[in-house]
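fwd from M.: "can u put these together and see what the complex looks like"

so here's what she sent:
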Amino acid sequence: MHPAPSIILFTVLSGFGFGLISIVGLLQFLNQINEFDIIIFSGMGLFFSIIGLISSFFHLANKKNAIKSMSQWQTSWLSREAISSVLCLSIVVGNIGWVIVQNRYINDVGIMLFLLSLFTVFTTSMIYAQLKTVPSWNNMLTPAIFIFAALAGGSILLMDYASLVLLLIFGVLQVLFWYTADQSFIYKETSVGTALGFSKNEDIRSFDLAHTSRNYLLNEMVYKVARKHGVKMRYISFFSAFVLPMLLVLMFPGNFSVSVLVIASHLIGIYFSRWLFFAEAKHSVGFYYN
Amino acid sequence: MTKLPKCEDKKLGLLIDLDTCVGCHGCVVSCKEWNSSGGEKQLSDLNSHQKDPVGTFLNRVHSYERENSCTNETETFYFPRSCLHCEDAPCVTVCPTGASYKREEDGIVLVNEDDCMGCGLCAWACPYGARELDLVSGVMKKCTLCVDRIYSEELPPEDRVPVCVKSCPTGARAFGDFNDPNSDVSKKVKERGGVDLMPEMQTKPVNKYLLPRIKSKNSASSFGSVVEEETDATGLLGWVDRALSKI
């Protein structure tokens, strides 16, 4: 699949933003945070989420109809995501306003924000996980890495040892995701044979092109990247998103300025991870162009 | 509305005979022509007379070869690929704006371009690559089963079929109601064993394909014998033959 920068930035930044909102919400519910921090960190979460959503807006080819994407929540995960994110961000704004005006907070709003922001990240992940056409996405590891990337990223500034646990879970899930995506069994039933109506093991080759130059399908779904660097990029991603943040948090627990460095490293790693998430994913339409 | 209808009155679709298709791309060209000449809606092209031309098409013809397990010879066939108007169309349910829909009356899957925001998710959800985003208008394009032809009251009755069916010079494409067991397409599917593409994707395509028949060993060798067998020439050629033989 085409690794469009607008989509990658969207999943990375809004994931981090909603992760931050969820952790603030959790701490607010547990009475473990002061009013000032709620304003600062929810505000930060709001900022990153909105930057992410604006980035996704630039992916649309016909932007004037974007508002209509809130209408089909009954069947569409993308529509659910649009509604959920706007609802969640509205509550964040309301919560910040309440804290500023009243100088105190309501615990139950915290748990609401925790659940709603994680649900928003879940809806984002389901946009990809629902697609039977892309088997490496079509499993529950996709929502799992999206949610734990968000939680781990969000926890770095606000928690110390708890964020180590979240990072560890994320790291394990990420490796599991890559391992699963590499297995040939992910295309257990589909082949060029079944794509053309034959049996799975039919020996069929393309001997001529259906069109003389590239087209939308090839650019979007049969994107051929320099996969030779895929393994190297996985190491970079894993080190930057997981190993370095773990080490820094262990060495400097609770050090705020180090935390900022950790976040930067983590987000760069997640960016690489998401780039690979798209670039390495294979779509079934590729069988017609075998 | 992106909810799929519970049951359609009709299941209109295409039956494509891979044994008959000669890969002329006539359906591709006529499809592009019909769907680009109806006023505002276009299937646009970019760089059409320059390097790297790209364009939107609703129908593509691929060319494949496969081993004949019976004769161990390689056989070629051509494969037109377009929207299959699936009963469980994943492209419809993923659409966030409600632009994609499946008609209850005849099962045709359509895009309402006034609602499409060009996110491209429906194209990702389609296993068959049946949808292409138009690079100029920014909305999703797909086969309409020539809905503007089949119900037209202005066209003569014999033209009220999809233009790809009308233009096919070998009759490899047929149009009809797959819900009606007595329709020509249903009968042919039953008789020749029409197949679904990627049935494992559980999309329940309406369009069916008839696969190339396996050519038997005899038919292949008898064709060879016509070419290679030598017969004694008669008449003028016979005289030339005899004269040359004597030299």
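replying to her w this: Chain A has one domain: 5-59+67-289.
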